[in-house]
Amino acid sequence: MDASLEKIADPTLAEMGKNLKEAMKMLEHSQRRTEEENGKKLVSGDIPGPLQGSGQDMVSILQLVQNLMHGEEEEESQSPRIQNIGEQGHIALLGHSLGAYISTLDKEKLRKLTTRILSDTTLWLCRIFRYENGCAYFHEEEREGLAKICRLALHSCYEDFVVDGFNVLYNKKPVIYLSAAARPGLGQYLCNQLGLPFPCLCRVPCNTMFGSQHQMDVAFLEKLIKEDVERGKLPLLLVANAGTAAVGHTDKIGRLKELCEQYGIWLHVEGVNLATLALGYVSSSVLAATKCDSMTLTPGPWLGLPAVPAVTLYKHDDPALTLVAGLTSNKPADKLRALPLWLSLQYLGLDGIVERIKHACQLSQRLQESLKKVNHIKILVEDELSSPVVVFRFFQELPGSDPVPTAVPVPNMAPSTVGRERHSCDALNRWLGEQLKQLVPASGLTVMDLEVEGVCIRFSPLMTAAVLGTRGEDVDQLVACIQSKLPVLTCTLQLREEFKQEVTGTAGLLYVDDPNWPGIGVVRYEHANDDKNSLKLDPEGEKIHAGLLKKLHELESDLTFKMGPEYKSMKSCIYIGMASDDVDISELVETIAVTAREIEENSRLLENMTEVVRKGIQEAQVQLQKANEERLLEEGVLRQIPVVGSVLNWFSPVQASQKGRTFNLTAGSLESTEHTYVYKAQGAGVTPPQTPSGTRAKQRLPGQKPFKRSLRGSDALSETSSVSHVEDLEKLEHLSGVPEPDGLEPGGPEPHPGAPPPQEAELTGAFQNGAQRPEDDRPQVEEPESLR
Description:
Elements: H1 2-6, H2 11-29, H3 58-70, H4 87-102, H5 107-128, E1 135-139, H6 144-157, H7 161-164, H8 168-171, E2 174-179, H9 186-194, E3 201-204, H10 218-230, E4 234-241, H11 253-263, E5 266-270, H12 284-287, E6 294-297, H13 299-303, E7 310-314, H14 319-325, H15 332-335, H16 339-371, E8 377-380, E9 390-394, H17 415-439, E10 446-450, E11 454-459, H18 461-468, H19 472-504, E12 509-512, E13 521-525, H20 539-554, E14 561-565, E15 572-576, H21 585-635, H22 642-651, E16 661-664, E17 669-672, H23 674-679, H24 714-736, H25 758-766, H26 774-777
Parallel strand pairs: 2-3, 2-4, 4-5, 5-6
Antiparallel strand pairs: 1-7, 6-7, 8-9, 9-11, 10-11, 12-13, 13-15, 14-15, 16-17
Helix pairs in contact: 2-4, 4-16, 5-16, 6-9, 6-14, 16-18, 16-19, 17-19, 20-21
Protein name: Pyridoxal-dependent decarboxylase domain-containing protein 1
GO biological process, one term: carboxylic acid metabolic process
GO molecular function, one term: pyridoxal phosphate binding
């Protein structure tokens, strides 16, 4: 780069390119030192700090910019990183610096240079995107080109609009037709820019019965146009989509062009699918956009070029009207907007441009083919052969629901079933989209909420692949992540209805329907003092739920628990997360209910303990005073005199027992300490009651975590019991198989004549509680007659 700069004859241009190269290195690698000035003079406090003194050098200023750009990334590790700007990005950034330098030339040189840049860029774009004999308007705001086109249409249809202004619109109001699938806020932006009232906008609905549900209904549009003409209105302009902002579907542009020619309406086309016009194969629906009156292109995201303006191509023969509408300008600064794109197109060349757009389309096809093989994933694609946008969502049929979601309500399907399935899947798809965005950031996924389908995930590599550097390996990783998350999604969705039924049937628990929570469900414990009609914060309930959350975390289960405010209120609830395995919902709900009830009872005990202790202290004081009076009567008055009492106690000591009082917190009663002094040990007192437990609490197998449903069920327990029974029988047979007393070793002690053998005595003790002796199990052998 430095060697190429030396070949430039203009020293100022060479120095500017060199400084830009150094600036880019500083901002990208973050390895420059900050040079600070020492001994700065104090100036007035009204002057900001960066402006004090004699100014700062270039390194210090760039270091400040770098800190502003990257300073918070160290603290927030999950913050999105700035896109990786390649060499073509440096060329585009160089165009802005060149534009500032070129603007300092003399007027004649500036006019020739800007005219050449504008004409070249216009010609190249028209040839690349098959728009013959067109003009170009370069603009920073993507919607600005459409606003200028609407102004041009107004001047074309209303000849006296320049002289009379909006008075000519009073008798014949203009109408701008927008699709219901257009990007949000477009109609409001046009009315604000043109000064038109909102009734001048007409929203055309999409198909409901036939065709794509994201395409403009042509028959209904024709009906609207006829009605407007009959009412004396002027159909002015129609905005069609070659790739809607949501799902990338293309309107029937060919049919719309015929309709616009019939009624004299200006046809404007925009959308991401217009990028495919640069490819060798183009679908017929997108190819029809080349016959429209104007179109808006966004080559910046398509080619990965930062700070490159959008382009609106249009066809018009009257240069005076285009000048009045603002589409053309005599200012050199307006013409220099094309300079970054002029440099970038030359750097990439036709092959580079086509390769980037083709690579993005191949990524879409790769993801689409892979998702077809994945269960529980629905793909919303208009044209499977050439759609550069893939929209998909997770779905699973619930009992009583329609397996194929449709836009038209099915009479046999209950509305509650449709709403339950929609809300459940929406929350899960939102969770899935966020997980995939974190796991595969190079995919550039977007989570969106559609009116008919619900929450979906969009993959639009034409808008993100060139910027993020998305590769085929990233698509494969994305599919692998989707497959790894499917078991969690399916299991959670299946357990949701069971969890709701269990909570509804459990006393003291309230099921909270939160459509935004992707987990198993939300539950709230209703304590005794809970005001069910109030939506305010409940301190006592928050305390109980905080203790419940702590107890649930101590169980170390695979489920995740969190506490938060209830949906549509401020009361605390327990949120139960996703489930990756079969969960015993009954045990989970019962554990929550029992634990919350214990926490409530313990909190009540602590609240009542203060009053109990206070009454106990008062009673102890009364009893101790009474004991002192009894001791005074027993010992007499003389023993209370200091000198006489000591002499009397020396001659005749009093054997007085030490008496005191102890307070039993468990029983809440006052007891005597005489037992402690006599036996030198503190009494056990009343045994505290056992902690209540669930009626359905089960014994877990070794290594089994809480709330896990046993896969083998009762078979595992029966096998365990049978094994233990066999072991007991083997032990008994071993004990019963000991030789008779006759076989004792000589020299051993002879048993008592009336006593049983030692082994038999042991067995007698072992089976004295009604157990059957092992000899009873052995078969009875009848003695032969010869031995009788």
